[in-house]
Design brief:
Elements: H1 5-19, E1 23-31, E2 34-41, E3 44-51, E4 58-62, H2 74-83, E5 87-92, E6 99-107, E7 113-121, E8 128-132, E9 138-141, H3 184-187, H4 193-200, H5 206-215, H6 233-247, E10 254-257, E11 263-267, E12 279-281, H7 285-333, H8 337-350, E13 360-365, E14 370-375, H9 382-426, H10 430-442, H11 452-455, E15 463-466, E16 472-475, H12 479-489, E17 495-499, E18 507-509, H13 518-530, E19 539-546, E20 567-572, E21 580-582
Antiparallel strand pairs: 1-2, 2-3, 3-4, 5-6, 6-7, 7-8, 8-9, 10-11, 10-12, 13-14, 15-16, 15-21, 16-18, 17-18, 17-19, 19-20
Helix pairs in contact: 4-5, 7-9, 7-10, 8-9
Length: 584
């Protein structure tokens, strides 16, 4: 999600409380489009990170101290000349624009107090950091934009600064929402209602627009000009409620994640369309943004690094499924073998009655007591036809035995590959991916590099949790770790959990001679559901049994086990609140 005007309003309020009155003690430009300001305040040093990156512009307070380049860029040198040692006197946002103005007072060459403004524009590919005078004359910018690049506005030293006009857009903080004509601008547009909202109001993102539609009980995808005035009354109420939140600065930063724990959105006001998804609350907007961007980066990085493995597993699984279908058809063809055996036996009994050169013979089927007609090859005798039918029977019998074995092997391959795909979804770091790569190499799906083990120094370990009642819970993140927790970490009397007939992690609860309370059983089951292929379903049936009942067949693939007696329960695919993770 890009920073919208409402999030920037919350962020501006936070920055004003933290930085106004502080003195700028250090200015660094670690990247061509990035600034790091260290501000000395009464509460200690604060670091303000500003990025005008085209793909990910942001502003937030951070603890990270980035290294300055060996030679400072010109824009950084200019800022050091003018505002190093200056005091931040105000931080504002023009309306609900995606702009933050940082006003800084400093001493000029004559020793007089002068004010300058550092304007941060967070507008996607048009993002910029502009240093200017209060009267609007630009001194410099981190990105220069000439008339050849933009016909709307030049961003060059000496040019007059202005905010590009958002034609026809409305700032809800400055309009009377009770005005009968307030919603006319929305109603007249032949576009989906959500799009009409974010193209009509300043600072609205598509997510905010959809949330308002849901709050009002309206279809966000229905054309705005098909709604009547009465149908949009509730929408006016939802917009009014949002305006009250903005004016009261009643913001509640949160990161929204999907069932896999991957951050999908953030909010400073509740987004109705995500109400059922897990939320992580934060005290500050900066903390929310750091967590969101870091989480997105981590998931994206692991996804990118696992893409080659996913492709290998997906291709192998597709081939196995096709092979399984072919084998199923071959197995179905073997259903004829008993018919050929009966033909052969009946011909040996009644073949002498067949006329020479006959194309068929009708006789009694002593197995059913009914008449049966047996096709014959008229060029050979009845006994030769009997031998031919027995040959067909024996060939199909051998095929059935071979196909049956191949079906079992192919089904095991499919189950193994699905479990590997689940392991890739669970993988948290490169060490996890390295173990999965080793597993695929051991199974012959990829070629093992002779130096790969020497190159990797870190080892991936199973997840370790402590239940609400203090019991240790271990979770395998891949098939190698599943074998480890089940057959090396767990004792015979410990409890073992796994999603029923779904690929997933082996989960072990260490008993240590104690009786496990029901709450720990439920927490372990929830964890087993969360680390399974059924995570997205919300509810998953979990089998649980004493570890001594779990066996690994000889020659079985990594992670494959069997058990013949078990208990079951339905669990929620989430990490329970009372459970804490241990860093081993």
């Amino acid at each position: 999600m890009a920073l919208d005007g409402i999030t920037i309003r919350a962020l501006t309020c936070e920055l004003r409380k933290s930085l106004v009155g502080g003195r700028i003690s250090r200015i660094v430009q670690p990247e061509p489009d990035e600034l790091l300001l260290t501000v000395k305040t009464s509460g200690g040093n604060e670091r303000l990170l500003i990025s005008a990156g085209a793909s990910l512009p942001f502003v937030y307070l951070t603890d990270e101290n980035k290294q300055a380049p060996m030679q400072a860029p010109n824009f950084c040198m200019l800022l050091r000349k003018y505002i190093s040692g200056g005091h931040i006197t105000d931080i504002t946002q023009p309306g609900l624009e995606r702009i933050i103005d940082i006003t800084i007072e400093h001493l000029d060459e004559m020793g007089d107090i002068r004010a300058r403004i550092l304007t941060v524009e967070l507008m996607g590919k048009h993002s910029n950091i502009i240093f200017r005078d209060p009267d609007g004359v630009m001194i410099d910018s981190i990105k220069h934009v000439s008339a050849a690049v933009s016909s709307v506005r030049e961003v060059l030293p000496g040019r007059q600064y202005f905010i590009p006009k958002t034609e026809g857009k409305i700032d809800i903080t400055e309009r009377d929402i009770d005005d009968p004509g307030f919603l006319c601008d929305i109603l007249c547009k032949p576009v989906p209602l959500a799009k009409s909202l974010y193209t009509t109001f300043t600072g609205f993102s598509p997510a905010i627009a959809v949330s308002l539609c849901e709050s009002a009980g309206l279809d966000a995808d229905r054309a705005a000009n098909t709604y009547s005035d009465s149908e949009l009354c509730k929408l006016g109420g939802a917009i009014s409620d949002l305006k009250d939140v903005i004016l009261a600065y009643d913001f509640h930063p949160a990161v929204i994640a999907d069932s896999n724990g991957e951050p999908v959105e953030y909010e400073v006001t509740p987004l109705s369309q995500y109400r059922e998804m897990p939320h992580s609350l934060y005290d500050t907007v900066s903390g929310m943004l750091i967590s969101y961007y870091a989480g997105r980066e981590e998931y994206t990085r692991i996804r990118q690094k696992s893409s080659d493995l996913r492709r290998i597993v997906s291709t192998a699984l597709e081939r196995s499924v096709k092979k399984y279908d072919i084998l199923q058809k071959q197995l179905k063809d073997t259903d004829k073998m008993d018919k050929y055996r009966v033909y052969g036996e009946l011909l040996q009994t009644y073949g002498y009655t067949a006329a020479e050169g006959a194309a068929s013979i009708t006789c009694d089927n002593y197995y059913t007591g009914e008449k049966i007609t047996i096709p014959l090859d008229p060029t050979i005798g009845a006994m030769a036809n009997s031998v031919r039918y027995f040959d067909r029977y024996n060939k199909l019998k051998r095929t059935k035995e071979a196909v049956g074995t191949q079906l079992e092997e192919t089904e095991a391959d499919m189950e193994h590959l699905r479990s590997v795909m689940t392991s890739l979804d669970i993988a948290e770091n490169e060490e996890d991916l390295a173990q999965i790569r080793d597993e695929l190499a051991g199974s012959g799906y990829i070629h093992r590099k002779s130096h790969s083990k020497q190159k990797r120094s870190a080892k991936s370990h199973p997840l370790h949790y402590i239940s609400s009642d203090g019991f240790h819970i271990y979770v395998g993140k891949n098939n190698y770790q599943n074998d480890e927790v089940t057959f090396r970490v767990a004792a015979a009397g410990d409890w073992w959990f796994h999603a029923k007939k779904i690929p997933g992690s082996h989960v072990i609860v260490k008993c240590e001679g104690k009786d496990i309370p029901d709450r720990t059983f439920e927490e372990a089951a929830d964890i087993a559901a969360y680390y399974s292929g059924g995570r997205s379903m919300g509810k998953v049936e979990i089998d649980y049994v004493r570890r001594k009942e779990v066996k690994k067949p000889s020659g079985a693939k990594p992670g494959f086990v069997v058990y013949y007696t078990n208990y079951s329960m339905v669990a929620s695919a989430q990490i329970p609140q009372g459970v804490s993770e241990v860093s081993d």
